[in-house]
Input
Amino acid sequence: MNDIEQVGTFKLGDRQIKRMGYGAMQLAGPGVFGPPKDKESAIALLRAAVEYGVDHIDTSDFYGPHITNRIIREALHPYPKELTLVTKIGARRNEKGDWIPAFSKAELTQAVHDNLINLGLEQIEVVNLRAMFSVHGPAEGSISESFSVLAELQQEGLIRHLGVSNVTEKQIEEARAIAPIVCVQNHYNLAHRHDDALIEQLAQDGIAYVPFFPLGALHRCSLQFCNKRQKRYRHRRCRLLLPGCYSDPQTSC
Output
């Protein structure tokens, strides 16, 4: 963390953001559900991250739900002017903590307002629409109607910039036909490079590519085995910038 100034920056919308940020998903309780065991430690962690130079926090109001954003607000509000908060919508949690698609106009509108209230903001810098046709990876399906809702909320002044997450190239083009996007959040790392060509294209268009699992992390319930050594790998919570990409400390959702 002491060397964060050396990681360089990348353009996200109209802001220059450091290439290493903080993903707030694990501030909630086990399974990203319910309160953390030690709220004061969570608050201290957020304050330390900003003190060390982190200027981008990725979050969502379905983390907890609501809990992570409320912790961020308690820890950091009023926010430093250089801090960028990015959230995502498109899912909700049921009473068991399952991830449920939430793509209706009413659900998306409520999600934006929940983020604003719980973060203590009048406008969110970036809202990403998380495609939920598959929880664990991009899957085809139209996002046109849902993304149009975000574009309307942007026109109302509730959102500054729009992005998409867990999406295919077709869905990216579908979104861009409705409104400009500033970032794409997808699963990417050295072993999972399906988006190599997409990254280059987005860079040419000035759109940030935000990889989650950039160190080869897996879904929290998954295991992967090396063919040569049969070595077990579990997901990792730390994040590292991949050259040419804007790295966001995002996890599975």
Observations:
- The chain is about 25% helix and 20% strand.
- The mean pLDDT is 86.
